[in-house]
Design a protein that fits this description.
The chain is built from 6 helices and 45 strands. Helix content is 9%, strand content 34%. The strands form 12 sheets. Strands 2, 3, 4, 7, 10 and 15 form a 6-stranded mixed beta sheet that branches. It has a 4-stranded antiparallel beta sheet with strand order 6-5-8-9. A 4-stranded antiparallel beta sheet has the order 16-45-44-43, with no helix packed on it. With 694 residues, the chain is mainly beta. The radius of gyration is 25 Å and the shape is globular.
Length: 694
């Protein structure tokens, strides 16, 4: 991001250049935002710009594509990007202005395959108001390779599309403000090359393992799915918030998906309170001033509607009542919520079967993300029969199969094409594509924790006091006790303590949380480094404190090597050397095992209170969130008041876009939460926790 004062966010988009524009508005001169000579010709794009029901006239409309390191600019003729990261400089394809009815048009353009395209609108005026310098609206077009070449794409740019982009692409947006390079407001969307591929993957083993992720692609698809702002089949866009996620062609990847449309409409009215004015600043009594005051986060004070929308998405529990009151004075977008929500956390929920894979989700408990960024989860069918279900980032199922088991929150995948799933005192090695059982690996007691290293070795613990850590290779047929260079078998914990969950840090050290009813041990750390080769560790250590006598539900590590373990009522902090530091009580209690995003924020299920709890490891603060569901039983209609998405969720996982996945066995749903997370490496076996894909 090139602004020293603006908040750092990104929107991934790609498009190329326009060769002709309406109303005599020409393409500007080449700048750092870049213009170029067209190459392969693409179709045109146009649409309308409205602030609620009012057309915005004389607004500047700009078409952009992302500008990613390593992606050719042959179609646009642009130079190669010197570097790219979150919110880095985008490439300006064309510019025009809206007419008196809010219409705009760009007749032709080119874009570069591998990049993403989006359109921004800034300034302009509605009705008798003067020009509004605080109006910044944005809409996604999507992947360049998916854009039509024979029909013009129609796009409605509105408060709704801006919210969709804020919730899904906020991590990728850099709001530069007034840019000398182009003479107006510049909104950049960008991503590192390693988080801008169509399908994520990992290759190599050990220190040679490398991964790439599809965070930008996923975020763009999610933005398109939330609001029907553009269709690629020539149909006129409606501009409404969707109740069911759709792709760019208006198709529903999974018809059981549910989006709380009235929540989005309510927030769109909140933004409209600023858009349909002459502007303002935080602290004044204008519509914009009230919006910016309500969406200020510490020293981050919004100065435009996009920044305000991103702040709402990032902190959905902040100033809920004030924002709801602002929305109540505006009625352009309907239907709206009839009762104030507990917060503005946005989530889409999926209930199960689609046209290709008929399995309902059942009582889903386990959840894991694959190197490609897809979801694998389990769902109880009947008795000891479990359905393993593969789900794409858009909610569509890509596979399913039946295995045996008593349920496992410690479902794990490796990079050798396997899923591991517990079945009492055995481990099932399952083909990750067909979900057929390849082998059963016997253990001495019921397995509990799972983790995979960069060599595709599986590690597990069992709930037996003093039992060692076990491992098995990707082709092995039996588990073996794990030791150090000086000890052949190292027990987990001491006395009555036993292993519960496992987690690798970025130094290939393995942490286990402790099932510990009477001994003051929280975590055990098996360290790795020079002089030892996995699955043999260099040494091991345990943490202790008189305040710790409980069951530790899970442990994760941050990029600095610190470990963070959860009990039902607190988060405990350990140094990278496994020395207990302090604990942070969580009064409501009933926390489960956490996941971690790319900024070091813990995502913790609180099944006892039907909440998703975030824990900021930098500030030591909790935020309890209850995403809104408007789903009604057995019909396509939606309720006007929020019910809780969660009833008893078990696990979370953070995607490369920053979306947080979770499963709920009571509701029998798969949930995708937008806005609150930061991009993370989806595949835990890469062992880069608490780091953004770079």
């Amino acid at each position: 991001m090139r602004s020293s004062s603006s908040r750092f966010f990104v929107l991934a988009t790609t498009l190329s250049l326009f060769t002709s524009l309406v109303t005599g508005c020409g393409i500007g001169t080449g700048t750092s935002a870049g213009m170029a000579t067209p190459a392969a010709r693409r179709s045109g794009v146009g649409g309308k710009l409205h602030g609620g029901p009012n057309p915005i006239q004389n607004a500047s409309v700009n078409l952009w594509e992302t500008w990613t390191t390593g992606i050719s600019g042959a179609a646009t003729g642009r130079s190669a990007a010197a570097s790219s990261t979150y919110g880095s400089t985008a490439y300006q394809l064309a510019t025009t202005t809206t007419d008196s009815t809010g219409r705009w048009n760009i007749a032709n353009f080119n874009c570069d395959p591998g990049e993403y395209v989006y359109v921004t609108a800034t300034g302009g005026k509605t009705a008798s108001n003067s020009a509004n310098p605080n109006e910044v609206l944005i809409a996604p077009l999507g992947a360049c390779a998916a854009l039509p070449t024979s029909t013009a794409t129609q796009v409605d740019i509105s408060e709704l599309t801006t919210l969709a982009m804020a919730y899904t692409l906020g991590n990728f947006i850099g709001d530069v403000g007034a840019s000398p390079a182009i003479g107006e407001q510049e909104i950049d969307i960008g991503a590192p090359a390693k988080n801008n591929v169509a399908t994520g993957s990992c290759s190599g083993t050990g220190s040679s393992m490398t991964c790439v992720a599809n965070g930008l692609d996923e975020a763009f698809a999610d933005a398109i799915s939330l609001v029907n702002a553009t269709t690629y089949n020539g149909a006129k866009p409606t501009g409404n918030a969707n109740t069911v996620p759709t792709d760019a062609n208006g198709n529903m990847p999974n018809a059981t998906g549910s989006i709380p449309a009235a929540l989005l409409n309510t927030l769109a009215n909140t933004l409209q309170s600023c858009v349909n004015t002459s502007g303002g600043i935080a602290g004044d009594t204008s519509g914009c001033g009230k919006l910016f005051t309500a969406t200020t986060l510490g020293s981050n004070i919004p100065t435009d509607t996009l920044e305000a929308a991103i702040n709402i998405a990032k902190a959905p529990a902040s100033n809920v009542h004030t924002l709801y009151t602002i929305a109540s004075t505006v009625g352009a977008f309907t239907p709206t919520l009839t009762v104030e929500p507990s917060d503005y956390t946005l989530a889409v929920t999926y209930k199960g079967s689609d046209a290709t894979h008929p399995y309902s989700f059942g009582m889903v408990i386990g959840l894991a993300l694959t190197p490609s960024g897809t979801v694998i989860m389990d769902g109880f069918a009947t008795g000891l029969t479990v359905n393993l279900i593969g789900v794409n980032p858009d909610g569509s199922q890509w596979g399913s199969g039946t295995v045996n088991g008593i349920g496992g929150v410690h479902l794990v995948v490796d990079n050798a094409g396997h899923v591991y799933y517990p079945n009492g005192s055995s481990i099932q090695r399952i083909d990750a594509s067909s979900f057929s059982v390849l082998s059963n690996i016997t253990t001495s007691a019921s397995v509990q924790g799972f983790a995979v290293d960069r060599f595709n070795n599986l590690y597990t613990s069992i709930i037996t006091a003093g039992a060692p850590l076990y491992s098995v290779s990707a082709t092995g047929t039996s588990v073996a006790a794990v030791g150090t260079t000086t000890t052949s078998s190292v027990p987990i914990g001491t006395g009555t303590a036993a292993g519960y969950s496992l987690f690798f840090d970025s130094s290939e050290g393995l942490w286990t949380s402790i099932y510990n009813p009477s001994t003051a041990i929280a975590t055990q750390n098996f360290t790795s480094g020079a002089g030892c080769t996995l699955p043999v560790f260099c040494s091991t250590s345990t943490s202790s404190s008189p305040t710790i006598q409980t069951v530790f539900n899970g442990v994760v590590t941050t990029a600095d090597g610190k470990a963070w373990a959860t009990t039902s009522g607190a988060v405990y902090e350990m140094t990278s050397n496994n020395v207990y530091v302090t604990n942070f009580p969580y009064a409501p209690g009933l926390l489960s095992g956490p996941s971690i995003d790319g900024a070091g924020t813990l995502m913790i299920p609180d099944g006892g209170h039907s909440a998703l709890v975030t824990f900021n490891t930098s500030t030591g603060t909790f935020t309890s969130l209850t995403p809104c569901s408007l789903r009604t039983a057995g019909s396509g209609s939606q309720n006007p008041t929020c019910s809780n998405v969660f009833a008893n969720e078990y696990m979370t996982a953070v995607s490369a876009s920053g979306a947080v996945w979770s499963v709920d066995d009571f509701q029998q749903t798969l949930v995708k939460v937008f806005g609150i997370g930061t991009p993370a490496w989806p595949y835990l076996g890469y062992n880069h926790p608490g780091e953004m894909p770079q």
